[in-house]
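User: Here's a structure from my thesis project, written as structure tokens. My advisor, Dr. K., wants to see whether a designed sequence matches the one we expressed. Can you design one independently, without my sequence as a hint?
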């Protein structure tokens, strides 16, 4: 394993390069000695972090080493990887050099994988433990019996017998000959196990009847070709050397030294710009329409907080968009703080009102920043849309996809699947589940196209700005239009707005007309019902015509003036009040017609006087039924004044999506995080470490003393990281085993140390939790966000 002496031999340049490759060694609190640095780099968490940065061929070489017991002579390693040519051996050398540079492989007589890296593959290449692991604890009598079954005359001493058995089982030709002479059922069992399949347990292990020697499992166990995983069960495994022998001389472990090819072609900048601008503008319009619709009628959500499939289909139909567009729109709106999902519904937040007044480029900039930081992958899922759901590695994968597509710039990606394969080849372990990562990478590319981060298969200036960490994207966005303040009101009773209408224009047209088409040019249509709606909301004929004239390009069309006047003339001719409610009108013939109307029988209407009708239904039900039947009633207050009916715009609190970011309980918010020490530069830290003794006394703070006394599973380095997090109120990630023995990783914050336990805010559970220090088995630094 990595030691202080090994690190010192690297020298200043070598150690600096190592820390730049392994930044976990620079995390605060910074190590005070080379021994502590070695200890920190050797932890499983730090080792896995290093493996996540490596490409596929480098990981394949590491897995091959693990399959060979963690150490192998170079010719043996080359043979297993099928590297029989000079170029193949050079590729293996490059991978080994990368592993050495990351302190994952150490050299003595042969390349040797550090233990924490070897443990990353419980069954490397589908193989079990080395044969020695299953024999070292056997008694002399057991080994003597096994030797006789193998056709060996056993030596006298146990150590010599063990060497005899090991030599036999490590000899591929002898293993093949042994299996060739095995009973047919045992041979079939062994060939299946060698191919990586499951080994059936010994059926007679728990039985007191029958002879175990009669089973194929027992035959193989007696000769060391299968081994029990423990002495207390019937589960079996095949030693690695035996499996490799049975796979044959033609077997080679996977070794994909060449990156997948991605077909690219020259791009037309004008085409790219037009496609990106159109996509960005369309997403702004979709999010606006979505939030306006949710403001008028909040969207029902599932108990889990997401929007279900049925509601997605309904919304997509209402908004005239595709389901993938809507999924992405919901997600980015939630992560931008414009939409809140909670209390059984989704509704716009107060922040939407400010965003709605931005220019389109500023609106899109807000959405892009939210998407870039979002841990959700809405297009990679097929179920409900849950913006708070976290897909591991999504943020890193999104950046990797855009970065790979940018090489070279201004090149068109023809096949997103090939691009995904390249991204995963570069870092197979970096993006969550390796089985789903390729599909998730394709989904990221599709999301980028829908947002205008790419255009016609080319990364745009906005994509390059996101990669570069730019916060203000407005300057690099293409022409996605400007806010429109006027509409063309036409003689066919339609209103047309080209571009994004401002808040005032949109509110007026939504009130006095119905949306008809959505897109670059948006259309509303006026009708008697929509004009009546505006009058119900408090407009008079005169005020409505004046408001329409203010937003019109040119004169108001005569048909629109006639429509408003005609509806206004009839508007209020019937007045409704509460009895359950009653109707009154000076037009007795009209009241007689209403009483006789069969469509209104459910209202229970009866005539109280020639000018008054009483209804058994509530006022709002009566108004709705009369309007559906073609009448134009007006609600009336008790004093006879008309009641103005206004649409209610719903707003929700500006809370983040579920699990979008950690919260802390309000009662403990007074404990503000202290200023943490800045992460040191690698070169500065290296000089300090090389100047210090390999073993340096660590200052013992009260928190560190308490942690070391109770958290007995932690190394000194891990204890320092935890104590530092407690003292500076910084987040930290712990591996914790609960009372039932179930392990989990928890990022905790706002930590208080009390009598051998931690009281902390758990980001996983979004609640305060107690953690027993004795049950914490590992610690690593966490991001503050």
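Assistant: Designed independently from the structure alone:
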């Amino acid at each position: 394993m990595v030691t202080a002496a090994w690190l010192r031999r690297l020298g200043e340049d070598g150690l600096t390069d190592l820390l730049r490759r392994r930044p976990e060694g620079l995390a605060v609190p910074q190590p005070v000695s080379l021994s502590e640095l070695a200890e920190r780099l050797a932890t499983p968490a730090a080792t896995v972090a290093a493996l996540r940065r490596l490409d596929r061929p480098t990981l394949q070489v590491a897995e091959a080493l693990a399959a060979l017991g963690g150490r192998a002579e170079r010719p043996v390693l080359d043979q297993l990887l099928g590297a029989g040519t000079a170029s193949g051996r050079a590729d293996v050398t490059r991978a080994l050099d990368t592993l050495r540079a990351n302190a994952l492989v150490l050299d003595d007589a042969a390349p040797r994988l550090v233990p924490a890296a070897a443990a990353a593959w419980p069954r490397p290449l589908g193989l079990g433990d080395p044969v020695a692991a299953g024999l070292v604890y056997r008694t002399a009598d057991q080994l003597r019996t096994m030797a006789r079954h193998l056709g060996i005359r056993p030596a006298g001493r146990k150590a010599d017998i063990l060497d005899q058995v090991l030599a036999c089982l490590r000899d591929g030709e002898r293993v093949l000959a042994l299996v060739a002479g095995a009973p047919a059922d045992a041979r079939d069992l062994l060939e299946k196990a060698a191919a990586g399949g499951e080994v059936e347990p010994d059926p007679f292990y728990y039985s007191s009847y029958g002879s175990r020697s009669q089973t194929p499992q027992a035959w193989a166990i007696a000769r060391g070709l299968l081994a029990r995983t423990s002495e207390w069960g019937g589960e079996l495994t095949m030693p690695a050397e035996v499996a490799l022998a049975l796979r044959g001389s033609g077997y080679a472990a996977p070794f994909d030294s060449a990156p997948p090819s991605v077909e690219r072609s020259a791009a037309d900048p004008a085409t790219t710009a037009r496609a990106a601008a159109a996509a960005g503008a369309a997403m702004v319009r979709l999010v606006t329409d979505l939030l306006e619709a949710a403001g008028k009628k909040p969207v029902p959500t599932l108990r889990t907080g997401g929007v279900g499939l049925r509601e997605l289909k309904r919304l997509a139909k209402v908004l005239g968009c595709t389901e993938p567009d809507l999924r992405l729109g919901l997600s980015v709106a939630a992560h931008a703080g414009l939409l809140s999902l909670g209390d059984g519904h989704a509704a716009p937040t107060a922040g939407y009102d400010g965003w709605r007044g931005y220019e389109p480029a500023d609106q899109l900039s807000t959405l892009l920043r939210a998407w870039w930081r979002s841990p959700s992958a809405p297009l990679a899922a097929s179920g409900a849309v849950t913006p708070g759901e976290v897909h591991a590695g999504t943020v890193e994968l999104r950046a990797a996809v855009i970065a790979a597509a940018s090489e070279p710039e201004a090149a068109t990606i023809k096949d997103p699947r090939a691009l995904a394969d390249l991204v995963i080849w570069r870092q197979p372990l970096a993006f969550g589940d390796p089985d789903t990562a390729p599909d998730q990478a394709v989904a990221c590319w599709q999301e980028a196209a829908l947002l205008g981060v790419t255009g016609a298969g080319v990364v745009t200036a906005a994509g390059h700005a996101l990669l570069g960490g730019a916060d203000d994207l407005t300057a690099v966005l293409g022409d996605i239009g400007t806010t429109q303040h006027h509409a063309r009101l036409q003689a066919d009773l339609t209103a047309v707005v080209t571009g994004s209408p401002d808040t005032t224009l949109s509110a007026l047209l939504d009130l006095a007309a119905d949306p008809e088409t959505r897109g670059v040019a948006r259309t509303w249509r006026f009708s008697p019902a929509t004009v009546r709606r505006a009058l119900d909301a408090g407009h008079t004929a005169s005020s409505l015509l004046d408001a329409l004239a203010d937003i019109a390009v040119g004169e108001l069309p005569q048909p629109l003036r006639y429509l408003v006047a005609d509806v206004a003339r009839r508007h209020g001719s019937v007045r409704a009040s509460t009895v359950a409610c009653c109707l009154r009108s000076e037009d007795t013939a009209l009241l007689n017609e209403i009483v006789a109307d069969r469509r209104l029988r459910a209202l229970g209407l009866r005539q109280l006087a020639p000018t008054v009708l009483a209804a058994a239904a509530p006022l709002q039900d009566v108004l709705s039924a009369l309007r559906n039947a073609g009448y134009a009633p007006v609600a009336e207050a008790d004093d006879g004044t008309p009641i103005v009916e206004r649409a209610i715009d719903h707003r929700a609190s500006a809370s983040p999506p579920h699990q979008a970011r950690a919260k802390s309980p309000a009662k403990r918010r007074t404990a503000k995080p202290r200023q943490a020490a800045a992460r040191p530069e690698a070169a500065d830290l290296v000089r300090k470490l090389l100047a210090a003794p390999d073993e340096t006394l660590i200052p013992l703070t009260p928190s560190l003393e308490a942690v070391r006394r109770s958290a007995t599973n932690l190394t000194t380095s891990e204890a320092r990281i935890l104590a530092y997090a407690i003292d500076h109120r910084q987040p930290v990630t712990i591996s914790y085993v609960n009372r039932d023995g179930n392990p989990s990783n928890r990022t905790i914050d706002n930590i208080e140390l009390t009598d051998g336990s931690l009281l902390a805010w758990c980001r996983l559970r979004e609640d305060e939790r107690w953690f027993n220090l004795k049950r914490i088995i590992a610690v690593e630094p966490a991001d503050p966000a």
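When you compare it with your expressed construct, this may help: Confidence is low (pLDDT under 50) at residues 208-212, 656-671.
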